[in-house]
Amino acid sequence: MSGPLLLPTWQDLRGAHPQVVDTMRTYLEQIACVLRPGSVTGADLALRSFATYLGTNHPELQRIRDIGRAHIEGFKPWLAARPGQNRAQLTPATIAHRLGTLRVFFLRIDEWGWDDAPARVPMFPGDVPKQHHALPKALDDPSAAKLLRAAQAEPRMLIGVTVEFLLRTGLRVGEYTALTADAVVLIGDTHWLHVPIGKLHEDRYLPLHPRVVELVDAYRTKHVPEGHHLLLPRENGKSLDRHGVTRFINKAGAAAGLPHIHPHQLRHTLATQAINRGMSIEAIAAMLGHKSLDMTLVYAKIANRTVAEEYFTVAEKVEALYAQPAQLPADDLGPNMARLQREHHRMLGNGYCARPKAMDCQFENICESCTFFQTTIEFRPTLLAQRADACAKGQVRRAEIFDNLITGLDSTEAS
pLDDT tens digits, residue range 340-383? Predict the structure, then answer.
């Protein structure tokens, strides 16, 4: 028995631990009523691993209710030393899954009040190793724009439709290729996409961008015969598959000068763009069809990363602020005058502005941008100086305001 696929069968295990095996198999029958077959298979492997350990190291144990901490603490290193498939040991992910599944087993039979449940759940959250999942790999905004432009320029219409559809909807590839001809529905004055039951056994509706609606209509008019059951089949009528979609995306990606792109990256790209522009976690979860917010919260980490990027774009300005040499007040000045002497103060109608010299002010041209502001030709030198100051500071918007004011004065003078 050198790998996970060579664990003893339940029949083999039953000879030494009949009651343990009976409880575990009854549990598997219960969860099979509510979980997918793959999940039940994973639970089967986890419980058989534990039963194998018990048979090898604790042959005297006959009931699940007699399991205690010593058995769990012995099982963990035993499991970590087990060989994996084509490798010396099980992967950390497999170990975490098996321990997590075993803990859920104990929690459930305790909740259900089974007679064979231990008096106290013998496993704790700390028994399950934490997994370090990498952030989803989304395309940054410039790369996404390059990919879309390249896809739109492709002679084959289906490539452009596929890339733009996935970028604007965030569908999984399997959901995209399975869309039926009646998937696009008009509700009120908005087109919605009906995504049928898929990976998480639930369907959903999401709004469709008008551009996507136009592309779908154009492609179906040209290439899809009336009565075809799919929304976007190939030009020959056959259904698309994952490999075909991947080829489409990377044909456009190569034309845009981008490295290999996995189709799921387009889903991550839409979610990243949405959260970075203020869309709520709940709305993103509904759009992507996530069953739990835990699945969506990973994009909050991406938003935090974007905050960091924006922070470092202004780091030099902040550094200039902190790099100003301190000016100690003169001994004969009062505290208020000493403070004013250290600050770049600007007298206002009812106080003063204490903004440091190195820090830009977003209200520096508040009056000049007001619709009631008026100026005349005698102020032209001042306006020119203010524009020069804005240009020197890299304040593009402020410079544009003074450009417009000066242009207006020049036009008035010419007339």
Answer: 444 444 555 555 565 555 455 655 666 776 666 678 887 788 88
Helix (H, G, I), strand (E, B) or coil at 346: strand
Q: How far apart are CA 341 and CA 329, in angstroms?
A: 7
Burial class, 179, CB count within 10 angstroms (exposed 0-12 / middle 13-18 / buried 19+) = buried
Report the amino acid identity of residue 278: G
* Strand ranges of the sheet holding 190-195, from the earlier edge strand across to the other edge: 184-187, 190-195, 204-207
- Identify the CA nearest to 74 among candidates 89, 56, 92: 56
pLDDT score of 305 more than 70: no
CATH architecture of 141-291: Orthogonal Bundle (1.10)
Q: How many CA atoms lie within 13 A of 48 on its CB side?
A: 19
Beta bridge partners of 84: 87
Q: How many CA atoms lie within 13 A of 142 on its CB side?
A: 2
Report the distance separating Cα 366 and Cα 358, nearest Å.
19
Q: Higher-confidence residue: 250 or 298?
A: 250
Write the burial class of residue 223 (CB in 10 Å: 0-12 exposed, 13-18 middle, 19+ buried): middle
Q: Is the pTM of this model over 0.90?
A: no
Q: What is the token pair recorded at 129?
A: 């190793």
Write out the two tokens for 362. Answer: 């977003």
Separation between Cα atoms, residue 350 and residue 344, nearest integer Å: 17
Concatenate the DSSP letters of all residues of 172-184 into one string: -HHHHHT-BTT-E
Place of tokens 């898929």: 198
The whole-angstrom distance between residue 170's C-alpha and the CA centroid of its chain comes to 11
**189 exposure class (CB count in 10 Å sphere: 0-12, 13-18, 19+):** exposed
CA–CA dist 394, 238 (Å, integer):
56
pLDDT tens column, 213-248: 999 999 999 999 999 999 999 999 999 999 999 999
Whether 191 contacts 207, CB under 8 Å: yes
Buried b (16+ CB within 10 A) or exposed e, 23-62: bbbebbeebeeeeeeeebebbbbbbbbbbbbbbeebeebe
Nearest by Cα to 90 from 99, 100, 80: 80
